[in-house]
Amino acid sequence: MNLQNRPIRLPALFAAVVFLLLVFTGKIAVSQTGSPGNTENKKKGSPLHLFIIGNSFSGNAAKYLRELSEEGGHELTIGRAELGGCSLQRHWEIAEAAEANPDNPKGKAYNGKSLKMLLSEGKWDVVTLQQYSMLSGDVDSYRPYAKKLYDYIKKLQPSANIVFHQTWAYRADADGFGQVAQGVLAKSEKEMWEKSRAAYHTIARELGASLIPTGDAFWRISSDSKWGFQKDTGFDYSQPQAPNLPNQNHSLHMGYTWNNNKLGFDSHHANAAGCYLGSLVWYGFLFHESPVRLKFVPEGVADDFAAQLKKTAWTTVQTVGKSSVK
Protein backbone atom coordinates (compact mmCIF):
# COMPACT_ATOMS: atom_id res chain seq x y z
CA MET A 1 0.00 0.00 0.00
CA ASN A 2 1.25 3.50 -0.86
CA LEU A 3 1.15 5.31 2.47
CA GLN A 4 1.70 8.67 0.79
CA ASN A 5 -1.60 8.30 -1.03
CA ARG A 6 -3.47 6.92 2.01
CA PRO A 7 -6.29 9.29 3.02
CA ILE A 8 -5.96 10.96 6.42
CA ARG A 9 -9.00 10.57 8.65
CA LEU A 10 -9.59 13.95 10.28
CA PRO A 11 -11.31 12.70 13.47
CA ALA A 12 -8.38 10.42 14.32
CA LEU A 13 -5.86 13.17 13.49
CA PHE A 14 -7.77 15.65 15.64
CA ALA A 15 -7.86 13.21 18.57
CA ALA A 16 -4.12 12.60 18.30
CA VAL A 17 -3.37 16.32 18.29
CA VAL A 18 -5.60 16.90 21.34
CA PHE A 19 -3.92 14.03 23.20
CA LEU A 20 -0.45 15.43 22.53
CA LEU A 21 -1.52 18.88 23.69
CA LEU A 22 -2.88 17.41 26.92
CA VAL A 23 0.35 15.52 27.52
CA PHE A 24 2.52 18.58 26.94
CA THR A 25 0.35 20.75 29.22
CA GLY A 26 0.42 18.12 31.99
CA LYS A 27 -3.30 17.35 31.84
CA ILE A 28 -2.53 13.67 31.19
CA ALA A 29 0.25 11.76 32.96
CA VAL A 30 2.06 9.18 30.85
CA SER A 31 3.62 6.18 32.60
CA GLN A 32 7.39 6.19 32.39
CA THR A 33 7.52 2.44 32.93
CA GLY A 34 5.44 1.46 29.97
CA SER A 35 3.55 -1.13 32.04
CA PRO A 36 -0.19 -0.35 31.88
CA GLY A 37 -0.91 -3.50 33.91
CA ASN A 38 0.94 -2.22 36.98
CA THR A 39 -0.91 -3.74 39.97
CA GLU A 40 0.50 -1.16 42.37
CA ASN A 41 -2.11 1.33 41.17
CA LYS A 42 -5.06 -1.04 41.36
CA LYS A 43 -7.11 -1.36 44.52
CA LYS A 44 -8.52 -4.77 45.34
CA GLY A 45 -11.91 -4.89 46.99
CA SER A 46 -13.02 -2.67 49.86
CA PRO A 47 -10.49 -0.99 52.19
CA LEU A 48 -9.43 -2.98 55.25
CA HIS A 49 -9.61 -1.19 58.60
CA LEU A 50 -7.14 -2.72 61.07
CA PHE A 51 -6.83 -1.78 64.74
CA ILE A 52 -3.78 -3.02 66.68
CA ILE A 53 -3.75 -3.36 70.47
CA GLY A 54 -0.24 -4.28 71.51
CA ASN A 55 3.24 -3.05 72.33
CA SER A 56 6.63 -2.73 70.66
CA PHE A 57 6.33 -6.24 69.21
CA SER A 58 3.20 -5.32 67.26
CA GLY A 59 5.01 -2.17 66.14
CA ASN A 60 7.84 -4.38 64.88
CA ALA A 61 5.59 -6.94 63.19
CA ALA A 62 3.48 -4.41 61.29
CA LYS A 63 6.32 -2.00 60.49
CA TYR A 64 6.31 -2.63 56.73
CA LEU A 65 2.68 -3.70 56.37
CA ARG A 66 1.66 -0.43 54.74
CA GLU A 67 4.37 -0.64 52.07
CA LEU A 68 3.47 -4.24 51.28
CA SER A 69 -0.25 -3.47 51.17
CA GLU A 70 0.25 -0.54 48.81
CA GLU A 71 2.35 -2.62 46.44
CA GLY A 72 -0.20 -5.44 46.58
CA GLY A 73 -3.00 -3.04 45.70
CA HIS A 74 -4.81 -3.27 49.06
CA GLU A 75 -6.14 -0.13 50.69
CA LEU A 76 -5.40 -0.24 54.41
CA THR A 77 -6.28 1.96 57.39
CA ILE A 78 -4.43 1.26 60.66
CA GLY A 79 -5.38 2.37 64.16
CA ARG A 80 -3.12 1.72 67.13
CA ALA A 81 -3.21 1.38 70.91
CA GLU A 82 0.39 0.39 71.66
CA LEU A 83 2.50 0.87 74.76
CA GLY A 84 6.01 -0.50 75.25
CA GLY A 85 6.06 -3.65 77.37
CA CYS A 86 2.28 -3.58 77.75
CA SER A 87 0.59 -6.82 78.83
CA LEU A 88 -3.02 -7.87 78.35
CA GLN A 89 -3.58 -7.14 82.03
CA ARG A 90 -2.31 -3.58 81.69
CA HIS A 91 -4.39 -2.89 78.57
CA TRP A 92 -7.47 -4.11 80.45
CA GLU A 93 -6.68 -2.04 83.56
CA ILE A 94 -6.37 1.07 81.38
CA ALA A 95 -9.76 0.38 79.81
CA GLU A 96 -11.27 -0.35 83.24
CA ALA A 97 -9.94 2.94 84.65
CA ALA A 98 -11.52 4.88 81.79
CA GLU A 99 -14.86 3.12 82.26
CA ALA A 100 -14.86 3.95 85.97
CA ASN A 101 -13.96 7.58 85.32
CA PRO A 102 -13.59 8.92 81.74
CA ASP A 103 -11.54 11.84 83.10
CA ASN A 104 -9.00 9.65 84.90
CA PRO A 105 -5.59 10.17 83.22
CA LYS A 106 -4.76 6.50 83.91
CA GLY A 107 -7.51 5.56 81.48
CA LYS A 108 -6.08 7.79 78.75
CA ALA A 109 -2.68 6.15 78.41
CA TYR A 110 -2.61 6.19 74.60
CA ASN A 111 -1.38 9.72 73.91
CA GLY A 112 -4.17 11.20 75.97
CA LYS A 113 -6.89 8.91 74.66
CA SER A 114 -8.65 5.89 76.11
CA LEU A 115 -9.05 2.57 74.33
CA LYS A 116 -12.78 3.27 73.96
CA MET A 117 -12.06 6.63 72.32
CA LEU A 118 -9.65 5.06 69.84
CA LEU A 119 -11.90 2.10 69.02
CA SER A 120 -14.84 4.47 68.52
CA GLU A 121 -13.06 6.59 65.91
CA GLY A 122 -14.25 4.35 63.07
CA LYS A 123 -15.53 0.95 62.12
CA TRP A 124 -12.78 -1.65 62.40
CA ASP A 125 -12.78 -4.87 60.39
CA VAL A 126 -9.96 -6.53 62.33
CA VAL A 127 -8.73 -5.90 65.88
CA THR A 128 -5.58 -7.64 67.11
CA LEU A 129 -4.47 -8.54 70.63
CA GLN A 130 -1.18 -9.93 71.95
CA GLN A 131 0.52 -10.74 75.22
CA TYR A 132 3.68 -9.10 76.55
CA SER A 133 6.54 -11.28 75.30
CA MET A 134 7.99 -11.98 78.75
CA LEU A 135 4.62 -13.49 79.77
CA SER A 136 3.72 -15.06 76.45
CA GLY A 137 4.63 -18.61 77.48
CA ASP A 138 2.52 -18.53 80.65
CA VAL A 139 -1.10 -19.26 79.73
CA ASP A 140 -2.30 -18.19 83.19
CA SER A 141 -1.10 -14.64 82.50
CA TYR A 142 -3.69 -14.33 79.71
CA ARG A 143 -6.62 -15.04 82.00
CA PRO A 144 -9.02 -13.37 82.58
CA TYR A 145 -7.71 -10.34 80.70
CA ALA A 146 -7.82 -11.74 77.16
CA LYS A 147 -11.53 -12.55 77.53
CA LYS A 148 -12.30 -9.23 79.21
CA LEU A 149 -10.65 -7.34 76.35
CA TYR A 150 -12.30 -9.58 73.77
CA ASP A 151 -15.76 -8.91 75.22
CA TYR A 152 -15.01 -5.18 75.59
CA ILE A 153 -13.96 -4.88 71.95
CA LYS A 154 -17.01 -6.85 70.79
CA LYS A 155 -19.28 -4.47 72.69
CA LEU A 156 -17.73 -1.47 70.93
CA GLN A 157 -17.13 -3.12 67.55
CA PRO A 158 -19.62 -6.02 67.26
CA SER A 159 -18.77 -6.82 63.63
CA ALA A 160 -14.98 -6.76 64.11
CA ASN A 161 -12.95 -9.92 63.69
CA ILE A 162 -10.75 -10.19 66.79
CA VAL A 163 -7.51 -12.11 66.26
CA PHE A 164 -4.45 -12.82 68.37
CA HIS A 165 -0.97 -11.94 67.19
CA GLN A 166 1.35 -14.80 68.16
CA THR A 167 4.64 -13.13 69.12
CA TRP A 168 8.10 -14.66 68.78
CA ALA A 169 10.75 -16.12 71.05
CA TYR A 170 13.97 -14.31 71.92
CA ARG A 171 17.17 -14.97 70.00
CA ALA A 172 19.04 -18.18 70.75
CA ASP A 173 21.91 -16.35 72.48
CA ALA A 174 19.66 -14.30 74.79
CA ASP A 175 20.73 -14.09 78.42
CA GLY A 176 17.21 -15.06 79.51
CA PHE A 177 13.87 -16.15 78.08
CA GLY A 178 10.21 -15.58 78.81
CA GLN A 179 8.10 -16.87 81.68
CA VAL A 180 6.39 -20.24 81.14
CA ALA A 181 4.81 -20.47 84.60
CA GLN A 182 4.81 -18.37 87.75
CA GLY A 183 8.47 -17.99 88.72
CA VAL A 184 9.69 -20.32 85.94
CA LEU A 185 11.50 -19.14 82.79
CA ALA A 186 12.03 -20.95 79.52
CA LYS A 187 15.50 -22.40 79.13
CA SER A 188 15.90 -21.84 75.37
CA GLU A 189 14.49 -20.14 72.30
CA LYS A 190 12.79 -23.40 71.34
CA GLU A 191 11.08 -23.82 74.70
CA MET A 192 9.92 -20.20 74.71
CA TRP A 193 8.45 -20.65 71.23
CA GLU A 194 6.76 -23.94 72.16
CA LYS A 195 5.23 -22.60 75.37
CA SER A 196 4.12 -19.28 73.90
CA ARG A 197 2.66 -21.03 70.87
CA ALA A 198 0.69 -23.40 73.11
CA ALA A 199 -0.57 -20.50 75.24
CA TYR A 200 -1.71 -18.44 72.24
CA HIS A 201 -3.47 -21.42 70.68
CA THR A 202 -5.19 -22.28 73.96
CA ILE A 203 -6.56 -18.77 74.44
CA ALA A 204 -7.56 -18.46 70.79
CA ARG A 205 -9.47 -21.74 71.03
CA GLU A 206 -11.23 -20.62 74.20
CA LEU A 207 -12.43 -17.43 72.53
CA GLY A 208 -12.99 -18.84 69.04
CA ALA A 209 -10.41 -16.48 67.55
CA SER A 210 -7.84 -16.82 64.76
CA LEU A 211 -4.07 -16.39 65.08
CA ILE A 212 -1.49 -14.41 63.14
CA PRO A 213 1.39 -16.94 63.33
CA THR A 214 4.36 -14.58 63.41
CA GLY A 215 6.07 -16.59 66.15
CA ASP A 216 5.88 -19.75 64.06
CA ALA A 217 7.46 -18.00 61.08
CA PHE A 218 10.33 -16.75 63.28
CA TRP A 219 10.96 -20.26 64.56
CA ARG A 220 10.91 -21.76 61.05
CA ILE A 221 13.75 -19.43 60.10
CA SER A 222 15.64 -19.69 63.40
CA SER A 223 15.60 -23.49 63.39
CA ASP A 224 16.56 -23.85 59.73
CA SER A 225 20.07 -25.28 59.24
CA LYS A 226 20.78 -22.96 56.32
CA TRP A 227 18.88 -19.77 57.19
CA GLY A 228 18.92 -19.77 60.96
CA PHE A 229 21.13 -17.44 63.02
CA GLN A 230 24.29 -18.94 64.47
CA LYS A 231 26.24 -17.21 67.26
CA ASP A 232 29.68 -15.98 66.25
CA THR A 233 31.96 -17.94 68.58
CA GLY A 234 35.08 -16.22 67.25
CA PHE A 235 34.11 -12.75 68.53
CA ASP A 236 35.59 -11.44 71.79
CA TYR A 237 32.45 -10.43 73.69
CA SER A 238 34.39 -9.67 76.89
CA GLN A 239 36.61 -7.03 75.28
CA PRO A 240 34.81 -5.75 72.16
CA GLN A 241 36.49 -3.07 70.07
CA ALA A 242 34.27 -0.46 68.40
CA PRO A 243 33.05 -0.48 65.71
CA ASN A 244 33.56 -4.24 65.30
CA LEU A 245 30.50 -6.45 65.63
CA PRO A 246 30.06 -10.22 65.68
CA ASN A 247 28.74 -11.91 62.58
CA GLN A 248 24.94 -11.76 62.92
CA ASN A 249 24.03 -13.02 59.48
CA HIS A 250 20.38 -14.13 59.19
CA SER A 251 19.45 -12.71 62.59
CA LEU A 252 15.81 -11.71 62.96
CA HIS A 253 16.52 -9.83 66.20
CA MET A 254 18.36 -6.56 66.82
CA GLY A 255 21.27 -8.28 68.51
CA TYR A 256 24.51 -6.39 69.09
CA THR A 257 24.86 -2.70 68.16
CA TRP A 258 27.22 0.10 69.11
CA ASN A 259 25.79 3.18 70.80
CA ASN A 260 28.06 5.94 72.10
CA ASN A 261 31.00 3.52 72.15
CA LYS A 262 29.03 1.04 74.24
CA LEU A 263 28.15 -2.37 72.88
CA GLY A 264 24.46 -2.93 73.43
CA PHE A 265 22.51 -6.18 73.08
CA ASP A 266 18.82 -6.60 72.30
CA SER A 267 17.82 -10.23 71.84
CA HIS A 268 14.09 -9.45 72.02
CA HIS A 269 13.06 -6.93 69.39
CA ALA A 270 13.07 -7.53 65.66
CA ASN A 271 15.60 -5.97 63.30
CA ALA A 272 14.76 -5.02 59.69
CA ALA A 273 14.64 -8.68 58.60
CA GLY A 274 12.44 -9.65 61.54
CA CYS A 275 10.10 -6.70 60.99
CA TYR A 276 9.93 -7.65 57.32
CA LEU A 277 9.08 -11.27 58.15
CA GLY A 278 6.39 -10.16 60.58
CA SER A 279 4.85 -7.79 58.04
CA LEU A 280 4.88 -10.51 55.38
CA VAL A 281 3.00 -12.84 57.74
CA TRP A 282 0.45 -10.12 58.54
CA TYR A 283 0.02 -9.41 54.82
CA GLY A 284 -0.60 -13.07 53.99
CA PHE A 285 -2.99 -13.47 56.91
CA LEU A 286 -5.01 -10.30 56.35
CA PHE A 287 -5.39 -10.55 52.59
CA HIS A 288 -5.18 -14.34 52.16
CA GLU A 289 -2.68 -13.71 49.40
CA SER A 290 0.90 -14.81 48.88
CA PRO A 291 3.48 -12.04 49.42
CA VAL A 292 6.08 -13.94 47.37
CA ARG A 293 5.56 -11.83 44.23
CA LEU A 294 5.97 -8.51 46.08
CA LYS A 295 9.19 -6.67 45.32
CA PHE A 296 9.49 -4.36 48.34
CA VAL A 297 12.46 -5.26 50.54
CA PRO A 298 13.73 -3.07 53.43
CA GLU A 299 17.22 -1.67 53.24
CA GLY A 300 19.79 -4.00 54.76
CA VAL A 301 17.97 -7.26 54.00
CA ALA A 302 19.84 -9.38 51.43
CA ASP A 303 17.85 -10.45 48.37
CA ASP A 304 18.31 -14.18 48.92
CA PHE A 305 17.28 -13.89 52.58
CA ALA A 306 14.29 -11.72 51.63
CA ALA A 307 13.15 -14.38 49.15
CA GLN A 308 13.34 -17.03 51.87
CA LEU A 309 11.44 -14.83 54.32
CA LYS A 310 8.64 -14.34 51.79
CA LYS A 311 8.32 -18.07 51.14
CA THR A 312 8.44 -18.89 54.85
CA ALA A 313 5.81 -16.29 55.71
CA TRP A 314 3.33 -17.65 53.19
CA THR A 315 4.00 -21.30 54.05
CA THR A 316 3.42 -20.50 57.72
CA VAL A 317 0.16 -18.67 57.07
CA GLN A 318 -1.09 -21.55 54.92
CA THR A 319 -0.13 -24.10 57.59
CA VAL A 320 -2.12 -22.38 60.33
CA GLY A 321 -5.87 -22.61 59.65
CA LYS A 322 -8.32 -19.72 59.33
CA SER A 323 -5.78 -17.52 57.64
CA SER A 324 -8.22 -15.15 55.94
CA VAL A 325 -10.30 -12.59 57.78
CA LYS A 326 -11.80 -10.76 54.80
UniProtKB/TrEMBL annotation:
Residues 51-175 form the DUF4886 domain. Pfam families: DUF4886 (PF16227). InterPro entries: DUF4886 (IPR032616), SGNH_hydro_sf (IPR036514). GO terms for molecular function: hydrolase activity, acting on ester bonds. This is DUF4886 domain-containing protein. It comes from Larkinella rosea.
